[in-house]
Every structure is written in C-alpha cells, then in structure tokens.
Amino acid sequence: MNVTMIGAGYVGLVSGACFAEFGAQVTCVDTDAARVASLRRGEIPIYEPGLPEIVQRNLAGGRLHFATGYDSVRDSDLVFIAVGTPSRRGDGYADLSYVHQAARDIAPHLKPGAVVVDKSTVPVGTARAVARIIREVNPGADFHMASNPEFLREGAAVSDFMRPDRVVIGVDSARAEQVLRELYRPLNLIETPMVATDLESAELIKYAANAFLATKISFINEMAALCEAVGADVHAVAKGMGLDGRIGRKFLHPGPGFGGSCFPKDTRALVRTAQEHGVPGRIVSAVIETNEAHKAAMVGKIRMALGGSEAGKVLAVLGLTFKPETDDMREAPSLTILPQLLQGGAVIRAHDPQGIREARALLPPGIEFSEEVYGTCAGADAVVLLTEWNVYRGLDLARLRACMRGRVFLDLRNVYAPETMRAAGFDYHCVGRK
Q: Which of 74, 240, 340, 345 ranks highest by number of CB atoms within 10 Å?
C-alpha cells in the first residue's frame, strides 16, 4: 500500500515512520527543504524516544521516503494531511490555513479512488471543507474523504502508535473504511479496537477526549488547593477517587498546570466550536480558566516560600518543558511562571535535559541556562522542580543541600516525600500536601 503524509512535523513524522514499520510504502512531504534533507540523512528534528531508530530502520529498508514535491501523491492509495493547526490569534480557534493549503496542493495529483485523510487535529466540519476545496481545485477528482485523529502522547508517541488504546476512523464511504482497515490490519494481531464512524463524530472524539483529560488535571489541581486549605493530602484524595472504576487513576496528578501542543489548543478550539453552534461550553471554559489561574497561583506559592518576595533571590529551576521525555515548550508552565519571577527581581538559573534550545527562544533574556544539575543549584536560595524528568527523581539530597546557599525546595510535581526532604534539611513545599 502506498501512503503519502503531507507534513513531516511531529504527527506526520511519527505516523509516517510507523506506517512504514507496518510495511507500507510511505513518503512524507514537507515544504521545508532543510528539514527534508536532514530527515533523508536520518537526522530527527524533534526529541521523541524511539523515533530515530524507527526512521533509520525504514529509511534503510526502502519503505520510508522524504520529499518536497507531490509526485508521490499520484501513486498513493491514501494521502494523509498532517500539518499544523495552531491556535488562531484573537479567538483561540484552530488555524486551518495549512490544512486548506494542503488540500489545494494535493488536489491536482490524486489518483482515482484515493482516500484523503485528515490526520491533523481539526474542528468538526474540516473534513467536508477539505473535500469541498479539492473539488473546487479539481472538479473531476475521484476520491474518498476520511478522518483519522491521532492520540499520541509526546514522549511515548511511537509506543502509542504501535500499541494504541483504539483507532478512530471517520469515513464517508465503504471504500474509505476498507482502505483504512487494511492499512491498520497489523494491529489486528493485538486486537486493537477500531471505532468506525462518520466524519463529524471522529473529529469530535479527539477534542472531547483531550478536553476530558484536561478537565481531570484541572479538577485535581483545584482539589490540591483545597487540600492545602483544610490540611488534607491530595495524593490520598486522588487515590481514593481513582480506585473508583468510573473515574480511574490516570491524570489525577497535581502539578503546576497543563501545557503542551494539545490540551491548551484543543480546549480553546472546542469552546469556540461550541460557541459557533450556539451550544454552551461552560465546563471546558472553566477548565481553561482554572488552569491559567493555577499556573499564576504557583508564582504566589514560590513567592511565599521565599518569605514574600523573590527580589534578589537565586532560584535554580529544574525542568522547563511541559512534561518529561519531550523538548516541547509550547504553553509549558515555565513560560508563565519564570517571566513573572524574573520581573520580580529573581535571579534564575535553569536546567532541562532536552528543552534548553527551545527555552532560549521562548523565555525572556536574563535567565541563565546550565547543562549540569548540581551546577545549576550551586549557591541557590531555592530549588524549583517544575518538570519531573527522571534525572530529578533521585537527586543526591546531601550533595544538593551542601551546594545550596538557602534550603528552600519547591516541588511542584510532588516527586519527593515531605518527611524525606525535611530529614535532609530542606524547607520543603509541594502541591496539595501538608
């Protein structure tokens, strides 16, 4: 089976490489010539565990190709659109200009019977809009339309693709369903559930799933604040909730708020879609507001731990990305928290295993970046643990305490046990615990 993936960014590259691993002949098309050249050499522009190996293996096997032109579309049974859909400035709606342009670009090249698939996360109605654009550009085009949303966690994208919880396909014809089922046939060996539905339902499933997970995060963060106020332990509360089979344990982990490329963008887009159709989106709107307020509250928590002011205090920040195992800085809590502390007069030194390059471009000047954990913390008045990378989970506490000037440790991911940190001589602060 021949597949063309329009877009060699995060979703397109992971999906294309994994389809090649399934045995398909895959060409990833991208307009960035430098990116295509580096990918042809097996160089991966993003940090994603397991991805370099799968790309290099399928390049060597002749199943994965990269191009800047659309020649491969002429021979492709499936053409996936996997371009960016960033939040549009002003209204928070998904910017579909790249999706629409991709539809125009592929329209003249589609072979008869090809299936065009939206892989990007897009609002309800986008698949039909793409089909309409293709027909406008190429009135004689013989194609089928489908939606196949991705459910890839950054840091675990390859395993999520190869062993998914489910595959969702929205189709407008039996032919589209048949071709997509054939493409995903290798997953039958592990009995992966497949949800086959209409185009609109498939598009909404992705937004609804991400909004629900974001809701769980905002809810437990709100409960964490209440736990601090009443003297309860948020971990006990989360455990007691999560053992209820109707709720489940996942995403009940308190922290400094959610970020990344999906939850902030998708919740805003879902609210906007609801507004356009005259449907209240109160719950998701509240989730967005709660998350932003929680990030801001973390600044106050840090400030209070420092005695009421961060002015002149040296802060060692551990972790900048929105989650571990990724270099993605999009809407990371650090982008909200650190500029305010810097503006308040703090001296900030920061470390991250993979995110420093992106952080330099997104954080304001004045932050010092360090390549070594204990060097970051040397002479610091306080340590702020923002992202729970594994390298921070087993710190030598005696060494850390000895190299610091102060003794404040702000654990915004609740990595450490309070009694352990107190015994090590730290003035320990966490989220939702005594």
A: 340
- Domain co-membership, 316 together with 413: yes
Q: 266-291: string of b/e by CB count within 10 Å (b at 16+)?
A: bbbbbbbbbeeeeeebeebbebbebb
Structure confidence by residue, pLDDT tens digits, 69-99? 999 999 999 999 999 988 876 666 788 999 9
Neighbours of 394 (CB within 10 A): 8
What SS3 state is found at 385? strand
Q: Which two tokens stand for residue 332?
A: 């990371």
CA distance 162 to 152: 10
Report which residue type is found at 296.
A
Structural domain span for residue 422: 200-434
pLDDT, tens digit, 9 for 90 and up, residues 180-231: 999 999 999 999 999 999 999 999 999 999 999 999 999 999 999 999 999 9
Residues 300, 393, single domain; the answer is yes
Q: Tell me which of 197, 226, 255 is where a domain ends.
A: 197
Is there a single domain that holds both residue 74 and residue 207? no
Co-location of 95 and 227 in the same domain: no
Which run of H or of E encompasses 196?
Answer: strand 194-197
- DSSP conformation letters of 244-300: STTT-STT----S---SSSHHHHHHHHHHHHHHTT---HHHHHHHHHHHHHHHHHHH
Angle value at C-alpha 165, between 164 and 169, nearest 5 degrees: 80
Question: Known catalytic residue: 262?
Answer: yes
- 204 and 193 together in one domain: no
Query: Domain holding 61: CATH number?
Result: 3.40.50.720
Task: Check 18, 28, 227, 262 and give the catalytic one.
Answer: 262
Measured CA to CA, the distance from residue 259 to residue 296 in angstroms comes to 13
DSSP strands (E only) in 319-396: 347-351, 368-369, 382-385
Whether the Cβ atoms of residue 58 and residue 25 lie closer than 8 Å to each other? no
Contact 152, 183 (CB under 8 A): no
**12 shares its domain with 154:** yes
The number of domains in the chain is 2
Contact 106, 135 (CB under 8 A): no
